[in-house]
Amino acid sequence: MQVLVLLLWMGALLGYGNSQNVANNPEGSPAAPDSTGEPVEEEDPFFKVPVNKLAAAVSNFGYDLYRMRSSASPAANVLLSPLSVATALSALSLGAEQRTESVIHRALYYDLISNPDIHGTYKELLATVTAPEKNLKSASRIVFERKLRIKSSFVAPLEKSYGTRPRILTGNPRMDLQEINNWVQAQMKGKIARSTREMPSDVSILLLGVAYFKGQWVTKFDSRETSLQDFHLDEERTAKVPMMSDPKAILRYGLDSDLNCKIAQLLLTGSMSIIFFLPLTATQNLTMIEESLTSEFIHDIDRELKTVQAVLTIPKLKLSYEGQVTKSLQEMKLQSLFESPDFSKITGKPVKLTEVEHRAGFEWNEEGAGNSPNPSLQPARLTFPLDYHLNRPFIFVLRDTDTGALLFIGKILDPRGT
């Protein structure tokens, strides 16, 4: 009977999976009444907090960006910190006239939230997610073509809300690349490698979003339990990777039979958590899971998962990404920013977005805050052993519990990848 009960409450998680509704309702607003006249569900109080509502909006932009990147790289790992890209776009919108501002705001889902002070709220969001205890470093920058005269009326609010000043290129590619590298190194405390890419030619506006995260588990892993184990790349191929193990891990767990995956949440210090989506088979297409990802879907998962004790194995992970997300943004209805935008609040000269670069580093290992589980986490009593082995392709979401903000997202097809 207890086995049946467990399966029933796992099945109850299907209630959070109506991706059609949440995908079209990024603000978490009440749905329209249905034809039966049933009462409309109240808006979740969590999303009534302005900073949380803004976090949901930019996170939904982040899930859109991730889907674009993943579909463009179906056979490769994907690593993104969408918040850093969203921050650069949001900052750029300060210099946009109404037509261009609307394009950016729709992509960031600002058009679905009523907040007269978006940029002031964004400042609060950044302060929350980059607090020292979060272990997240995130920064964005706007770089302009050489000799451009920038209006002080743009620089002042940019510095006030986003804590950054624009950079004007010198026109010397080697010096400009060195300056950008020095800025990245200073912002990331040397945690991200210096770029080996050349400066793009004919830059008008270059956006740069960088982020680094090295998490600390609430309960650390015993390094003596780490060993080389098989990671199933597909049904036939395996790779030996370092796998961390905990035979009595306390985690939050659920099974989604619609998405055909097991979901687990591990807590990190600083009110952070990672949610894993593990397909039941190594060959399962991840697209259905990816299409379900929205801020509201993840928030509902966070409320519904049950605390259990399980046998856990998880690969040690150290990934990095350096490249453009320009094409992905163009496919997200932002093409006009690269063609004929109106940034007359920035300068009197016609300028347009040329390139959007992203650099990210992400890692976890055995490190954690304590040797034993938090006594406040009481696992459900099960009559059968539960295991959760991240030994095949999976998706993970790093989320800030305080605001609900999506900070990192990854598709791990091979943990050995960079």
Automatic annotation (TrEMBL):
<feature type="region of interest" description="Disordered">
    <location>
        <begin position="24"/>
        <end position="43"/>
    </location>
</feature>
<dbReference type="InterPro" id="IPR042178">
    <property type="entry name" value="Serpin_sf_1"/>
</dbReference>
<dbReference type="InterPro" id="IPR036186">
    <property type="entry name" value="Serpin_sf"/>
</dbReference>
<dbReference type="InterPro" id="IPR042185">
    <property type="entry name" value="Serpin_sf_2"/>
</dbReference>
<dbReference type="GO" id="GO:0005615">
    <property type="term" value="C:extracellular space"/>
</dbReference>
<dbReference type="GO" id="GO:0016525">
    <property type="term" value="P:negative regulation of angiogenesis"/>
</dbReference>
<dbReference type="GO" id="GO:0060767">
    <property type="term" value="P:epithelial cell proliferation involved in prostate gland development"/>
</dbReference>
<comment type="similarity">
    <text>Belongs to the serpin family.</text>
</comment>
<dbReference type="InterPro" id="IPR000215">
    <property type="entry name" value="Serpin_fam"/>
</dbReference>
<dbReference type="InterPro" id="IPR033832">
    <property type="entry name" value="PEDF_serpin_dom"/>
</dbReference>
<dbReference type="GO" id="GO:0004867">
    <property type="term" value="F:serine-type endopeptidase inhibitor activity"/>
</dbReference>
<keyword id="KW-0964">Secreted</keyword>
<dbReference type="GO" id="GO:0060770">
    <property type="term" value="P:negative regulation of epithelial cell proliferation involved in prostate gland development"/>
</dbReference>
<dbReference type="Pfam" id="PF00079">
    <property type="entry name" value="Serpin"/>
</dbReference>
<dbReference type="GO" id="GO:0050769">
    <property type="term" value="P:positive regulation of neurogenesis"/>
</dbReference>
<protein>
    <submittedName>
        <fullName>Serine (or cysteine) peptidase inhibitor, clade F, member 1</fullName>
    </submittedName>
</protein>
<feature type="signal peptide">
    <location>
        <begin position="1"/>
        <end position="19"/>
    </location>
</feature>
<dbReference type="InterPro" id="IPR023796">
    <property type="entry name" value="Serpin_dom"/>
</dbReference>
<feature type="domain" description="Serpin">
    <location>
        <begin position="63"/>
        <end position="415"/>
    </location>
</feature>
<keyword id="KW-0732">Signal</keyword>
<keyword id="KW-0325">Glycoprotein</keyword>
<dbReference type="InterPro" id="IPR023795">
    <property type="entry name" value="Serpin_CS"/>
</dbReference>
